[in-house]
Design goal:
The protein is mainly alpha-helical. The protein is built from five helices and no strands.
């Protein structure tokens, strides 16, 4: 029988649950309403092929990641890896946006807002991952 989570461990688990639900919700929304959601960042597509690819790349991938995070959040030993995954995903988004700034120039304001959210998300995920319960198992 595993011990109950202390306050910091509970906050780490809560952060992962929130992230997982955001990813699942965003993935579903992007599969259903890709045109409306992506219009703000100037993504335009008009053919069935484009819609299929956008729904898969944006919606399906994010939805799948969200389901993985739900699984991590439901397993005590996977809370820390799940939070690190969230931090790495947000870091990847942030890195790509910064790279685009250097290569492509000045985007619309929404990109800076998304960058700030992603940087904060990475910072929080990596930070609270330190509070996650340890699995107690080390690779030798």
């Amino acid at each position: 029988m595993e011990a109950k989570l202390n306050l910091k461990e509970s906050l780490a688990a809560l952060a992962l649950w929130i992230a997982s639900l955001v990813f699942v919700g965003l993935g579903v929304a992007l599969m259903i309403w890709p045109t409306e959601i992506l219009a703000g960042v100037d993504v335009i597509f008009e053919t069935p092929t484009a819609f299929a690819d956008i729904r898969a790349d944006y919606g399906g991938c994010i939805f799948g990641l969200g389901l993985f995070l739900v699984w991590c959040a439901s397993q005590r030993s996977l809370i820390r890896p799940g939070l690190i995954c969230v931090g790495l995903v947000f870091s990847g988004y942030s890195f790509a946006r910064i790279l685009s700034l250097a290569i492509d120039g000045q985007p619309k304001r929404i990109i800076f807002i998304l960058l700030a959210v992603e940087l904060c998300g990475a910072f929080v995920a990596f930070g609270v991952s330190q509070w996650a319960p340890s699995s107690g198992k080390q690779l030798s």
